[in-house]
Amino acid sequence: MPHEEPLPFWLVNVPRDQWPAECPDFLKELGEKDRRIIGTPDSEYKKLAWDEVKHLISIDRVDLFHRVPSELRRYRQFTHRLVKEYGSIMNFIVNERLRWKSMSPRGRPFEYDEDIKILYNDWPYGIDDKIVHLVIWTKFELEDDAETGLSTPESHREIDLYVQKTFGSRLRPGNFAWFKNWKSLKSVHAVEHFHVMLYDPDPVFMKEITNNDVPMTAKFP
């Protein structure tokens, strides 16, 4: 049998009748990690179960969260377009997703609801379909340790109290978890945010808490 050359990463997970003649612009500047993920067939990707998600959060290895290969491809295409249209991902987040007229907080961290917005993660990771991934955006800063890049003990306590108050009465204790990305992992640096993962939450509660938000992955073709 003739030896088949492996497909270039930019053709993997793309139907043959839609193959581009060359690598698309939005994939040309990718690092080795993203090239490797996008070059993996979706059929070989294993989504993380809830116990695996909680474990990675508990050991601060959120760098091991990855998107499904075809979803990462769509995400890179989307963000490439955003930068062209809005100048930066941050401009899009502030103007189209948050729609905050002012970025100045009214009060102390978590004191006023108007300083907080809960939205879906526009491009969630490759996790069990029953897991909902939310992003909590805040006008106020949440202090990080300068050496570790992780939340300070005081900041960690404030976030945890907020998460327990907001989600603890609507989900079982083991069915929600939060994390804050290391500085080096943040895709949006200028607007403070952290992440909450929920296992099999009530859809009605999700509509209430997100004000009927729809993630961009559901809107982008």
Automatic annotation (TrEMBL):
Membrane-spanning intervals of the chain: none
Taxonomy of the source species: Eukaryota, Fungi, Dikarya, Ascomycota, Pezizomycotina
Pfam families: DUF3605
GO biological process, one term: N-acetylglucosamine metabolic process
Signal peptide region: none
Taxonomic superkingdom: Eukaryota
Protein name as it appears in the record: N-acetylglucosamine-induced protein 1
Chain coiled-coil ranges: none
Any single GO CC term annotated in Swiss-Prot or TrEMBL for this entry: cytoplasm
